[in-house]
């Protein structure tokens, strides 16, 4: 019953907050007990992603699939060994949990009549095929979690109301132009863990999207993909094979405040590349092959966190992080990691970190050959 209550609490959304990756319950639902902490923005309607008040009114429908638990318009059918989407789901259902089953296909009428469905959880099944009209009845669907399946392509004709798509850990190799057509409300796509290469993104694949958050980690990227949405606040490309950041790679992403490039093979960041990111607050470049601190960090007035650990940095200059003079940088650093680099930290001048909140915010040492 506690799990049903947690699922039901997802539906009790009030005024939504700006989108953040932290707190998304899908990350926990993939790997352990389902926890709910839904503070992200939606935007599926003209103003927000909050449910209409009448959709959270408790009901006591007699319709409940065999073996499932149904309460407060939540239908929880996880871990039942289901081979297909069950029948007799109440039409007033707003959250349907089908994770950890053996469903291999989404058919045309699987979700027929579920016009009030807000969230659909299909994580950790064996889905390899989706009918082109499988999602057609889901006119109010905002959250689709279909990670850890056997999909080789992004399902077609996704609902125009969709706000959040989690499709990581599948077998997708291509993102064709038009696959996201009409998804004007979408602000979050998580598609890491797919064997995507740069050539797999067709020109215009992301046209029309106004994403805040995009993650394409644990893929086969050798560079930052072109033509990603200009609206991005967060871009996560960690655990790829990116070797360099060239001048034009970040040109269109002036709204980024978090950039994740850790666990790549980056040896070079071209001078001036970071100048296109005036609002950047966090930069993750750990576990790469950098030989020096990237140029341009002192000019990023809002930058507060820089991960540079586990690189090949041998020297840290007195002006690598802080601007010359005082009162220029608007935000002080509260985290700089330089550990596991071959830099002789005892040679680094204290003035190097004059724009850091305190010395505990700096991490040095622990270099191993």
Q: Briefly, what is this?
A:
By secondary structure, the chain is mainly beta. It contains two helices and 18 strands.
Characterize the structure shown.
The protein has 2 helices and 18 strands. It is elongated. Residues 8-60 have low confidence and may be disordered. 4% of the residues lie in helices and 13% in strands. Strand 1 and strand 2 form a beta hairpin. The longest helix has 8 residues, at 2-9. By secondary structure, the protein is mainly beta. The strands form 3 sheets. It has a 14-stranded mixed sheet with strand order 1-2-3-5-7-8-9-10-11-13-15-16-17-18, with helices on one face.
Which helices and strands appear, and what pairs or packs with what?
Blueprint: H1 2-9, H2 26-31, E1 69-71, E2 74-76, E3 95-97, E4 105-106, E5 119-121, E6 129-130, E7 143-145, E8 164-166, E9 188-190, E10 213-215, E11 234-236, E12 244-245, E13 258-260, E14 268-269, E15 282-284, E16 305-307, E17 335-337, E18 362-363
Parallel strand pairs: 2-3, 3-5, 4-6, 5-7, 7-8, 8-9, 9-10, 10-11, 11-13, 12-14, 13-15, 15-16, 16-17, 17-18
Antiparallel strand pairs: 1-2
């Amino acid at each position: 019953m506690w799990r049903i209550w947690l699922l039901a609490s997802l539906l009790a959304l009030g005024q939504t907050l700006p989108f953040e990756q932290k707190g998304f319950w899908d990350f926990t639902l993939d790997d352990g007990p389902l926890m709910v902490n839904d503070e992200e923005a939606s935007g599926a309607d003209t103003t927000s992603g909050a449910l209409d008040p009448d959709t959270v009114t408790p009901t006591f429908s007699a319709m409940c699939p065999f073996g499932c638990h149904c309460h407060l318009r939540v239908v929880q059918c996880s871990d039942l060994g289901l081979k297909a989407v069950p029948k007799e789901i109440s039409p007033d259902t707003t959250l349907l949990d089908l994770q950890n089953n053996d469903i291999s296909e989404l058919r045309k009428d699987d979700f027929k009549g579920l016009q009030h469905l807000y969230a659909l959880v299909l994580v950790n099944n064996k889905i390899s095929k989706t009918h082109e009209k499988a999602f057609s009845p889901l006119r109010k669907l905002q959250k689709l979690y279909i990670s850890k399946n056997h999909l080789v392509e992004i399902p077609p004709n996704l609902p125009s109301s969709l706000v959040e798509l989690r499709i990581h850990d599948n077998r997708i190799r291509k993102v064709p132009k038009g696959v996201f057509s009409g998804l004007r409300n979408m602000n979050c796509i998580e598609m890491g863990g797919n064997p995507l290469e740069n050539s797999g993104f067709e020109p215009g694949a992301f046209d029309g999207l106004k994403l805040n958050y995009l993650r394409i980690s644990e893929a086969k990227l050798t560079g930052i993909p072109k033509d990603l949405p200009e609206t991005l606040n967060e871009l996560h490309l960690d655990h790829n094979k990116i070797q360099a950041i060239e001048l034009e790679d970040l040109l269109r992403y002036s709204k980024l405040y978090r950039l994740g490039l850790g666990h790549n093979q980056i040896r070079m960041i071209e001078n001036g590349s970071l100048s296109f990111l005036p609002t950047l607050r966090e930069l993750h470049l750990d576990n790469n092959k950098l030989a020096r601190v990237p140029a341009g960090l002192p000019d990023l007035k809002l930058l507060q966190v820089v991960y540079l650990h586990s690189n090949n940095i041998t020297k840290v200059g007195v002006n690598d992080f802080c601007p010359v003079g005082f009162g220029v940088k608007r935000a002080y650093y509260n985290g700089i990691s330089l550990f596991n680099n071959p830099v002789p930290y005892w040679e680094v001048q204290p003035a190097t970190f004059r724009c850091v909140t305190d010395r505990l915010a700096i991490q040095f040492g622990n270099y191993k050959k």
